[in-house]
Amino acid sequence: KISWTPPPNPNGTLTGYVIFADGKRVGVVGLDKLSYTVKDLPHSTSIPIQVAPVTAAGEGEKSVPIMCSTLNLSDYPPKKPILSTSGGANEINVSWIDPPKQLGPIDHYELVMNGEVIYSGKEQGFRVSNLEPLTNYTFNVRVVTADGYVIESEPAKKKAGSKVVQKNGNAVSGTESEGD
Q1: Residues in the chain where the model's pLDDT stays below 70
Q2: What are the strands of the beta sheet with 125-128, ordered from one edge?
Q3: 38 closest CA partner among 18, 54, 60
């Protein structure tokens, strides 16, 4: 989050401000705002930030660049999700705990399966059902903070349980799994 003071002698009546990160326009705010949160910046880097006033005559001169450093999000990862089976060949229970080191208040969690978000909410567990038996699945948990940081866990992998098979004329079922 950056903040600034209005220029002492603007070229006309101020109407707002334009924010630049690394030379690219990343935001525009009205006259009533003197701060802005720059989002979607790469982590573990320093980036020049500038602000330009806007008047009826157009965009004014950019401020002197201020170097801002972003956090190293790899210092705040959640633990791998915990995977278990209990509901049969087509279900995997996924649970997780809060990261040991937090980057502010947690807003919600996202559960990602094979690259797709399948759950978003405040609970720390989810039962994934209707899975294909004997198929490998990869799960990650994303922690989303109130400030908009998104930190992803290392992946955890599990194979959905086995199908029901016939053995000596009897139906036998079991779970076949592999996981971390």
Answers
A1: 72-77, 87, 162-180
A2: 82-84, 92-95, 125-128
A3: 18
CA–CA gap between residue 161 and residue 107 (Å, rounded): 33
CB 83 within 8 Å of CB 156: yes
Length in residues, the chain: 180
Q: What letter does residue 49 receive in the DSSP assignment?
A: E
Contacts 24+ apart (CB under 8 A), 3-9: 3/34, 3/35, 3/36, 4/34, 4/35, 4/51, 4/63, 5/34, 6/34, 6/53, 7/53, 7/60
CA distance 161 to 164: 10
Residue labelled with tokens 């999000």 = 73
Structure tokens at 63: 């401020």
Helix (H) or strand (E) holding 14: strand 14-21
DSSP 100: S
> What was the pLDDT predicted at 80?
85
Inter-residue contact 85 to 93 (CB < 8 Å): yes
Identify the helix (H) or strand (E) that includes residue 91: none
